[in-house]
Design goal:
This protein is mostly helical and 95 residues long. Helix content is 76%, strand content 0%.
Length: 95
């Protein structure tokens, strides 16, 4: 499950950056709203999946509440999920 969580975390981080660095500038600078919905929808679904998987892994891997909180808060920050992967998930074995 850790391996799948790492993939979802990577995709969630990429989608957040795509939303902030591509879709929003396209909308507000160039007036093209066509990218907001698909990228925003993908990011929303990945975010929900990330949080659900974090909750499941909190109990499966017996994470502390502090670690769980940091992992969840990191999903709100640009590149936060990349930090989580580097700091908290790189030493865990993939099943």
């Amino acid at each position: 499950m850790i391996k799948l969580f790492k993939i979802v975390a990577l995709l969630e981080g990429i989608s957040l950056l795509a939303l902030f660095l591509f879709a929003m500038p396209m909308k507000y600078v160039f007036g093209d709203k066509s990218y907001i919905f698909p990228i925003g929808m993908a990011h929303g679904l990945l975010f929900i999946g990330y949080i659900i998987m974090a909750i499941m892994l909190k109990f499966e891997e017996n994470w502390s509440w502090k670690k769980f909180g940091i992992i969840c808060i990191a999903s709100l920050l640009p590149a936060g999920t990349f930090y989580v992967d580097w700091k908290y998930l790189r030493t865990q074995t993939a099943n």
